[in-house]
Amino acid sequence: MKEILPISALVPTRNRAETFRRTLESLALQSHQPFEMIVIDGSDDQLTKEICESCISNLSTKIHYYTAVKLGAAIQRNQAIAHATQDTIWLLDDDILLEPHCLERLWNALQSDSEVGGVNAMIINQKYTPPGRVSRALFEFLYGEKLESYAGKCIGPALNLLPEDRDELPEIMPVEWLNTTCVLYRREALPDPLFPAHFTGYSLMEDVTLSLTVGKHWKLANARTARIFHDSQPGDHKNNEKVLSQMDLVNRHFVMTKILERKSLSDYLKLTVLQLFAIAALFGKEGKVQNLSAVVQGKIGGIFEIIRDRNKQVTEDV
After folding, report:
1. Higher confidence at residue 234 or residue 182?
2. How far apart are the C-alpha atoms of 245 and 292, rounded to whole Å?
């Protein structure tokens, strides 16, 4: 017998029918399942709709299917939450595989402390690794202090670092930010709208923005034993290095200035150093140096976009 939890799961998706089917099949194996799942689909075909309307063995969750009114991860999640009926919101991607008891452990972690506003799962194939000498020096510069570990922190100009997974750590670890790959939030802790209009398309760093906003008034945690595999899929949004490079700078600047309210000259210096480090790192990654021109063009485009947006804001304020 599956235990149904008072949770609304929100899933934005596009052209990933078979991958999403695997996600649903892994959910069907969970001992605890959400009351409902809101699927916002931007696919070019009907395959995802057919999967949502099919019968998946052992899946007790009610699936509500809607066509996306506009494409974009953040935009589709904003559409989804408008249909949610439960007091706990589960944000998850369409390409994850849940390990046994994942949702149960997430739920228990959220209920363990009434001051915890959000808790995410441990991504077993994407987690914090101890930095090398150069990266550690960068982290210390951005954070302004030498730490044994920077895992789970959001340092300097919104550099978000993954949580670490070690057996000697507690099952529930405090963190400074949460991803949207697999995370539970108390609905009362969430802003309205869920994501600001700034985030479009791939919506890079929308997860940092949301969790930092919630974290201003609530505790955030990582449930280390609630585990998932992120079966990350390719997509057009990941193939344009220029667009991604520009989005990284623009959205990181947004988080740094609007959410963290870090606007001093030293903050901008740290942002500059971080961007230069990202460019330099291309030379140390096999096959990545060929993207140098596109990445640099993206950074330059990002600078002009930031200046344009600032001038527009000044004009509107006047």
Report:
1. 182
2. 10
